[in-house]
Specification:
By secondary structure, the chain is an all-alpha fold. It has a domain at 2-154. It is 74% helix and 0% strand. It is built from eleven helices and no strands. The mean pLDDT is 76.
Length: 243
């Protein structure tokens, strides 16, 4: 059974590293998500087991509330990034995960339990239609998966391919939106956009003047530039002679 445990652990670590390359999420993140799912399933299992009795229902509600408070103060208190940074530092030092040897007996026990109970659970669920049995077995399988995930070593921090692909799509969408015409903001602009006749009258470019108007402009006396430039001198000279 030890050899089977080692093979399954190596396969789990390989799958977690492939998942990290694609999404950027580590095995620690996967283990935390499966732990949250197992907590929800455990609460459902407790409610389904003691739902018929009113007094037991109240006791189960208090127990679940107390357990939720304890979990928020212990297991779920630290953020995921703290555990991921600890795993990164351990891998950077060249150390293997100590859970590979420390939790070997616990992993083997849950793995044996999952394999042995698989056939009886399927048989009972198919013939007797008892959801509580399938829910109990799912809790055992989830616990086994969490134990194997926590014993793996992650890759160094990297940006996932999926995240990089989504980050490349966002600028392209922003550029395509910038090319689209902007919607009118005010009510007046919306009215002008719907009915151009309500907008301000545009000044049409004038054509050529009629012949009589052009002849009149030609006959009009033109001001000489030299005379207009010399005029201030004459005015100044008159002013000086008058004084």
């Amino acid at each position: 059974m030890t050899y089977i445990d080692a093979v399954i652990l190596d396969l789990t670590e390989w799958a977690c590293r492939r998942f990290q390359v694609v999404t950027g999420r580590t095995n620690v993140w996967l283990a935390v998500q499966l732990t949250n799912l197992s907590i929800i399933l455990y609460f459902l299992w407790a409610m389904m087991s003691f739902w018929n009795d009113v007094s037991m229902r109240f006791a189960v509600g208090l127990f679940c509330a107390g357990l939720s408070y304890i979990l928020t103060q212990t297991v779920l208190k630290d953020p995921i990034e703290l555990h991921e940074n600890a795993a990164y530092m351990r891998v950077a030092k060249g150390l293997r995960n100590p859970r590979r040897l420390r939790d070997a007996v616990l992993r083997t026990s849950f793995l044996t339990l999952s394999l042995v109970l698989s056939y009886p659970v399927v048989l009972v669920y198919v013939n007797l239609r008892m959801p509580i049995v399938a829910l109990t077995y799912s809790l055992i399988v989830l616990t086994t998966l969490v134990l194997y995930l926590l014993a793996c070593d992650p890759l160094p921090p990297c940006v996932g391919r999926l995240q990089a692909w989504l980050a490349g799509i966002a600028p392209a969408r922003a550029w395509s939106r910038s090319l689209q015409p902007q919607e009118p903001d005010s009510r007046a602009q919306r009215l002008i956009a719907t009915d151009p006749s309500r907008g301000p009258a545009r000044r049409e470019p004038s054509g050529r003047l009629p012949p009589e108007t052009r002849a009149r402009f030609r006959e009009a006396p033109r001001r000489d530039a030299r005379a207009s430039a010399a005029r201030p001198e004459s005015v100044r000279h008159r002013a000086s002679t008058g004084t």
